[in-house]
Amino acid sequence: MATNIFSIGQSALAAAQAAQATTGHNISNATVAGYNRQVVVQSSAGGINYGAGFIGQGTSVTEIKRVYNDFLTKQQLASQTTASSLDSYYSQISQLDNLLADSSAGLTPALQGLFSSIQGLASNPNTDASRQAMLSAGSTLVARFQSLNDQMAQSRTSVNSQITSTVDTINSYATQLAELNKAIIKAQGANGNAAPNDLLDQRDQVIAELNKYTKVATVPQDSGAVSVFIGTGQPLVVGDQVSKLVATPSSDDPTRLQISYQITSTKTALIPDSSFYDGGSLGGLLKYRSETLDSAQNTLGRIATALGTTLNDQMKLGLDQNGVAGTDFFNVAPVAVTGKSTNSATAALTATITNASALTVSDYTLSYDGTNYTLTRLSDNTKTTMVAADFPKVIDGVTYAGDGSGTPDAPTMTAGDSFLIQPTRNGAASISMAMTNTQSIAAAAPIVTSISATTDMGLSTTGNLGNGIVSGATLDTATFVAGSSQTYTYATGTPNTVTLSPAASVVVTDTSGNSTTYASGAAIPYASGSTYSSGGVSFALSGTPQNGDKFKFTPVAANSGTATVSAGSVDSTYLGAPLAAGAKLTYTYNSSATPPGFTPPTSPTTSAYTITHKDGTTSTVAAGATNLPYVAGDTYTSGGISFTVSGQPNNGDKFYVQPNTSGVTDNRNALLLAGLQTKNTIGNTNYQGSYSQLVSTIGNKTNEINVTNTAEKARLSAITQEQQSESGVNQDEELANMIKNQQAYQAAAKIIQAASDMLNTLLTLGS
To answer: What positions does the domain Flagellar basal-body/hook protein C-terminal occupy (predicted)?
Structure first.
């Protein structure tokens, strides 16, 4: 029985020793990241029936168990990967937010500066100072666009750099996991399948660290290894086999790094960016690039493109100081088209901005399957399917076509070819000044309008060969017959004569002041310098005309109605066929027409008319019509020319449109340029409105990420505290355990001492 007590004491001593060692192990690893406290699991050694009953045989240590809660660990991993993603996203977007919202470094001051200078030009269109101010403000705006874009480009470069370093880190952790898997399998096999707790903690800690970079999912294996998957299920470690990741340039955008599997030294398999969006700092980087940076850079580019295009278009509708049609103020970036690296050698596509107002901030891809072309808007995955006959095709303000050599003009592509189209990506980077000469700024309008405010003698001497000179022409409106005309024809002879047609009496006053009246139709002897008067028209004729020379007067009296005509404006269609020098469009009011309206000019030829009424409705009058119905306030548009007539004209009142030949002090086009500041030139908003939307969007997203991140970190802290309260080392608790184990050890020693004393007594009795 004593020997049995010895065994019991020895088992108790061994259990206390194991417990004390485990407690010491806990205390020494209390600050080790990822360490889970361990406990000794004991069980009874059973008993032996000695007749009177079972007598216990002591205790045994069945397991050194780590305190591990799989549910809490998975919650902690999920929260940690989300927080890491938000941290990464926020660190990038906060820099962008600070850049765009800066009241001095943002775009707003430069935009305001340009339009302030244009308003100054409208006030003083003929001064070099105001013109130079506009050029300087344009240069400042260009520099601001480029500066903002450069910093966005630096952010893009930073993302690429972080992608590369993160991939290297992930690969390093993957290698460590594979080695730990091998070590755990070996340790379990060599120790009767006992759990190697410290190796398991190390592996869990590596998984936790990896989880900060990309979302991790683990699947335990029967061997003791775990298979590790990242993103949306891409295998990274399976047993001791590692799938290596590499950062590779996109096949259609070499400046954009993506994540791929390394298959061979020359072959990779792409993993879509979206596979990493669910968590980790890598996911945060990729989400920031696709959700925010791409859109922000495209939005800035769209503002630059729309501003440059619309300002250029309006500039071309005016006249510069030399009376020449305006030219481009800015150089605007073309659409960026990049062919996929695997495209056929002959693949070709042209993409041209034809409506800057309709541009979106999305990128696009155009692919071809051998029959159909598919244009995909990447922002919302909207697809447009086309066949060759559909080209050229206009979508979202961009015209897609081939090389211009055929009809239809379809892109040259073979099955499998693809292009990336970025209409606005380079807009801010590539905008520059196209104009450097102050005289080239087109502040004047190309047309002028007028009414018969004073009498117009309408003298015509076309085709005359002599040097007859008409001077001192006047009109007596009291005797003038409206709409009448007079033609004096010169004839050589003895004497030289002039004859009036249609026949009427003429009073001739010679240079001495003597007057003679000639009967209707009579030939009037010609004397140089004499004055001829008939029907209210008077003029002096001098010089030496030649036989057959004609001097035709078509006097027009001033309008007698109250109607006025606006200054007039032109649009882009006017540039196709502007009024020739000397051309004059005359609109004569006819009160007897049904309904009353204007008789339009027949020369120069005009196209169909669109009449816009004051209530906003429109009506169309075909080209060649003889009457344009009139209601006060109507606007008439034809051939790119628009003008508005208001008030009540009288019968015969005339309204004129003709080329502007003296526009040095004209500011009408400058006013239209200034009006672009508040005009909806980008969808349903203006330049400043579009930039404000960008600033607001980035600001709101930054705040959203910050608030979400703060909440997620609070959740992570709570989960970590709960996990540590269960699995972490509590020094006070371990010190208490140490005392308890020490007492248990001392008690076990007493058992052995008692057994020794009993054995000695038995031996004494035997002697």
So the answer is: 725-765
Is residue 369 domain-shared with residue 308, that is, in the same domain? yes
How far is 698 from 720, CA to CA, in rounded Å? Answer: 32
Residues 342, 459: one domain?
A: no
Both 430 and 459 in one domain: the answer is no
Burial letters 687-704, b for 16+ CB under 10 A, else e: bbbbbeebbebbbebbee
pLDDT of residue 2: 47
Angle between helix 2-28 and 731-766 (nearest 10): 160
Q: State how far the Cα of 316 lies from the Cα of 328, in Å rounded to an integer.
A: 7
Tokens of 680: 């909806």
The Cα–Cα gap between 717 and 40 comes to: 29
Report residue 581 as tokens.
């020098």
Q: What is the layout of strands, in order, in the sheet containing 486-491?
A: 459-460, 550-553, 486-491, 497-501, 524-525
State the residue for tokens 């020094």. 731
Distance of CA 340 to the CA centre of its chain: 22
Q: What contacts 246, CB < 8 A, 6 or more positions away?
A: 167, 259, 260, 261, 262, 268
Residues pairing with 339 in the sheet: 419
Co-location of 543 and 586 in the same domain: no
Domain with 319, as residue range(s), is: 296-434
Confidence of residue 254 (pLDDT cuts 50, 70, 90): confident
The single-letter code of the amino acid at 40 is V
Whole-angstrom CA distances from 91 to 105, 403, 522 are 20, 45, 100
Q: Tokens 């390093």 label which residue?
A: 172
- Asked if the structure places residue 185 within a domain, the reply is no
> How far is Cα 565 from Cα 579, in angstroms, rounded to an integer?
18
Q: Tell me how far apart the alpha carbons of residues 117 and 677 are, in angstroms, rounded to a whole number.
A: 12
338 vs 690: CA distance, rounded Å: 27
Q: Please name the residue that has the structure tokens 């990309």.
A: 214
Q: Name the β-bridge partners of 336.
A: 422
Is the same domain home to 374 and 486? Answer: no
Express each pLDDT in 115-161 by its tens digit: 999 999 999 999 999 999 999 999 999 999 999 999 999 999 999 99
Identify the residue with better confidence: 455 or 397: 397
Q: For 2-41, write each residue's pLDDT tens digit.
A: 457 888 888 888 888 988 898 999 899 999 999 999 999 8
Containing H/E element for 43?
strand 38-44
User: What number of other Cβ atoms are within 10 A of residue 282's Cβ?
Assistant: 28
Pair (417, 310) in one structural domain? yes
Whether 447 is in a domain gets the answer: no
Average per-residue pLDDT for the chain: 91
- The total domain count for the chain is 4
Phi-psi region of 122 (alpha: psi -120 to 50; beta: other; left: phi over 0): alpha
Q: Tens digits of per-residue pLDDT, 668-685?
A: 999 999 999 999 999 999
Whether the pLDDT of residue 336 is over 60: the answer is: yes
Domain-embedded: residue 152: no
In this structure, is residue 753 part of a structural domain? yes
| Amino acid letter, residue 36 | N
The verdict on 331 and 407 lying in the same domain is yes
- What element of type H or E holds 282? helix 280-287
Condensed to tens digits (0 to 9), the pLDDT of residues 606-650 reads 689 999 999 999 999 998 899 999 999 999 999 899 999 999 999
